[in-house]
Design goal:
36% of the residues lie in helices and 24% in strands. It is of the alpha+beta class. It folds into 4 domains: 2-55; 69-119, no CATH class; 146-215; 232-311, Alpha-Beta Plaits (2-Layer Sandwich), CATH 3.30.70.
Length: 312
Amino acid sequence: MQIHQRIQKGAYPNCTQLAGEIEVTSRTIKRDVDFMRCRLNLPIEYDSRRYGYYYSRPVEQFPSLPMNEAEVFALLIADKAVAQYHGTPWHKPLENAFRRLTGQLEQEASYTLNNMDRAFSFRPLAPEDADLKLFQKLSEALKERRVIKFRYRNLGAAKSVPRQAQPYHLACIDSHWYLFAYDVDRQDMRTFVLSRLTELTLTRRHFQRSRPFDLDEHLKGSFTVFKGKDDYEVVVEFDRWATDLVRGRRWHSSQEFTELKNGCSRLRFRLNSIEEMERFILSFGTHATVVRPRELVARMEKTAAELVKRYR
């Protein structure tokens, strides 16, 4: 589009100029120009006197993008997924980008997209209300690698305490937004829930990461986001009813799913913490049973006893 706009203005751009402006190599520009000429049938010519490209006949608009049915479907799913970013600084730019992209589609693809629009949707469970100003400050801190100060309240705590950290990564996990950052005072990586983070300020201090941050590697042994230092083999058995709910889903990278003869099933995980497993198992009510580890069995026994006491 940038190449098209420069040529359309009659600026007679050449490969060297375009490469510098778009920050790619001259060879990439040559390939793009060939694509525009051969695949999009644009009348691009080279003027040897003005050392640049021009259109040999008027071009009213950029050609429509040809897409097959699978690509149209993928584009539709991408549009629906944008709904998960509602309330964040990325929602409006993503929505605008999608509208501009679909505006370039050929008529048949555009008709298919509009026709299928009501057939698909994403409904994230209990999405958090995002603080737009907080997101904007964190985005700036991440981009500029600036140390941040804020107040943070731990889960279940009555009061918040001051914290200082180097922000590494923002992630939406299970409909919650998390900041992964290096805690300066505790000299270790920490995970902060954005809904419990307040009074954020950006300091003038910049930082350099000691090594690249990989979220998948960081959370490798976590069930969702809670990171521990132990090593557990977690085994849970499900009855026939719950098996229909767990089958075909990827709960964790280490999982092993086994179908049992009676229509039941067994899930096996390798985790470094069992903090989040209790809530996961309780979500299935009496349809899930912990086999091991013993520590998790004991936690479930204690919780069951407290529930019985509460409802008597």
